[in-house]
Amino acid sequence: xxxxxxQRELIVGLDSGEWRVDSIDPDAxxxxxxxxxxxxxxxxxxxxxxxxxxxxxSAIPGTRRMVFAAYSPQWESFYISSMGGAxxxxxxxxxxxxxxxxxxxxxxxxxxxxxxxxxxxxxxxxPDYPEIWxxxxxxxxxxxxxxxxxxxxxxxxxxxxxxxxFDPKRxxxxxxxxxxxxxxxxxxxxxxxxxxKFTAVVDWCGRGGLGSRLLQQHxxxxxxxxxxxxxxxxxRASDTDPYFVEHFGDKGAKVDRAATVKYYLDPKIxxxxxxxxxxxxxxxxxxxxxxxxxxxxxxxxxxQHKDFIVNHYLKQYNEETIETKSFDHCGxxxxxxxxxxxxxxKKDYEPYHALGPQVGVFDQRAxxxxxxxxxxxxxxxxxxxxxxxxxxxxxxxxxxxxxxxGFPPAEKLRFGRFTASTDEFDLVAxxxxxxxxxxxxxxxxxxxxxAALFREGIRIAAHELNEMxxxxxxxxxxxxxxxxxxxxxxxxxxxxxxxxxxxxLMGKYYVYYGGGYITPEDLGRKNVERMVYELINDNxxxxxxxxxxxxxxxxxxxxxxxxxxxxxxxxxxxxARQIHEHENGKAVPWETQRMADLFEGYMDYxxxxxxxxxxxxxxxxxxxxxxxAQAFWQAILEAQSKxxxxxxxxxxxxxxxxxxxQHVGG
Amino acid sequence: MSEASGIRVTVRxxxxxxxxxxxxASGDVYRLHLANGSTPVDLCASLGVDPYQVHIVILxxxxxxxxxxxxxxxxxxxYVDLWPEVAGG
Lengths: 666, 89
Ligand code: SF4
Hints:
The structure holds two protein chains of two kinds.
Chain A: E1 8-13, E2 19-23, H1 33-43, E3 47-51, E4 66-72, E5 77-83, H2 87-90, E6 97-101, E7 108-114, E8 119-125, H3 129-134, H4 150-162, E9 171-175, H5 178-182, E10 188-194, E11 197-205, H6 210-218, E12 220-227, H7 237-248, H8 252-259, H9 261-264, H10 273-282, H11 298-322, E13 327-328, E14 339-342, E15 345-347, H12 349-354, H13 364-376, H14 381-396, H15 429-447, H16 458-468, E16 481-483, E17 487-489, H17 520-539, H18 547-562, H19 568-583, E18 587-588, H20 593-607, H21 625-646, H22 657-664
Parallel strand pairs in A: 1-6, 7-12
Antiparallel strand pairs in A: 1-2, 3-4, 3-6, 4-5, 7-8, 9-12, 10-11, 13-14, 14-15, 16-17, 16-18
Helix pairs in contact in A: 7-18, 10-11, 13-15, 14-15, 17-18, 17-19, 17-21, 20-21
Chain B: E1 7-13, H1 15-20, E2 29-34, H2 40-47, E3 54-59, E4 62-63, E5 79-84
Residues 61-62, 84-85, 260, 263, 329-330, 332, 334, 336-338, 543, 545 of chain A line the site of iron/sulfur cluster (SF4).
């Protein structure tokens, strides 16, 4: 049975506090929060949108992400970022999307509440937020901790002040932290609640600096949302199971569990979650001490992986988190329970790699302390890890004078050079030393005016430091992607050229990031393919961990549910093409020698057996590795443009097994 | 299997797969003698590598689709690269 295709947007004028709810024209081809955000952004770059996917009221796990879209001050482009589970609560507000326009007179909190009959929208000023960030005593019924800071503090304060009329089971908040005020890289954070009490799980709209945008452009500190609206047409599992049975041969829950096993617990390797699986599989591709491991031999990296990771960092994680099955979900019921916990600390691969081995931290206690501090400040852990690791190398190697920027002296860290020897590096004590140093950097960059240039981000800071220290060339050690005049992004933590691609939205998974050498021509085409399918996930509000079924199936379910006849691949190709066309011309080639070293090292790594794969040779052995790397980058860019120009027919189909059988059977 | 009847292929294991299956001193490259008609899945079995742990199979520079790994026949002189999965996210 089809459901009327009715969608509603809430438009809030932040200057006046006036708001209205409009119906969305069914012919506008808005199928989800990315379409919505993109359409509003094209009308007015200075709006901020968020919302849910069309399956948010269903029982299908993974369909309740909250998707944010706005201009990214960090990447200098339109950006999309999604937050786990938040639409499980947001669906009770009774609108699909929210569009914020203008700017509040004072830093304020947005309250969205639906009592079941009517929506109310309020803006509440919160002028004491700087004090709250510094420290707040939570109510004991909400939290077991005595004093909390940053994003944790602001969430508690918002609940204490404004949650009175919300049903505690259907209320959630998202907030920004101090780094949203001081930098362009601030995140948006949201803790999950169980039985009205905050849990250790924090979900993030982490990349792209949308927290900075929310606060600096709109003067919004956070949003408390929830209520008692219920979608009268919300499909039950019995409505959606037939799709899974037809396409995958089993009910939805079973198909989903099989498709997401590595995020839960993979019995074949006795670990699970992104941290466990990736640290297990990364082997001799480990990136440590600000990527310097990639300049070493395979055997050195393999030794470091065995002694530092497998026998210590990963071992701790497996014993403390996997063996005790300390797993939870992101706020929506999902048996994958990918959130891996040790007490109040949640562990994911990229944060615990970037603010882990990259900054010379190989011990869980040290990594917990550091990640928790960065989280509290509302920092993007990947961005923070890449930036701090670079500063630590510059300090350790004497390229910059730490005192000049208010940083602790070089003797306080153990970062002088790569080592794979536990005789040279004490995994517990030296990790803690490095973690404390990194925390001191975080605090100095936040508060100390001498360190203000680092608030501009790694790209600008690296160029400015080069002017201050031309003889030392600190820029050459930095790893970042560039976009526009000042836009920048620390790449995701996978040592593959795909993560350095010139796609319009970097810092996400809109690229091909599997291993193996592929030509830049193939890489460019595959990047475009991945952008199309990742956009399907984001636009449907679906968690990408469920992508095995969601990419080929979500469009089928949505079309049937709403009586539509949309070609999802074509629709999202067009969306990708428009974003590419709009943002095209901003991509800047890799700027630093360390980026070139990463590329060259990867080529050597793939080449090492001397196979007859000659296509790789043209990218190897040249005198100027930066020029070669930039030529490769250029070739990816051209291939991407060609793929966008070539149209949707050039994009490979992602199929369910049933669709594949039908395809090969003619 | 007689030497004459089989095929010789060169296999490389990457990242974590290499460390899980250090089969020779160099740990980099394995030259295997397989029966005629062997597939990438057979190759994994002969190395003791669980095919489930292999995310990417590259045969002479071309990626082999997951669905085709059990049916693509290897030939004498082939180069095969095996990569593990990364989880993403
Ligand atoms: S896999 Fe994790 S993030 Fe995704 S829906 Fe499930 S619990 Fe949430």
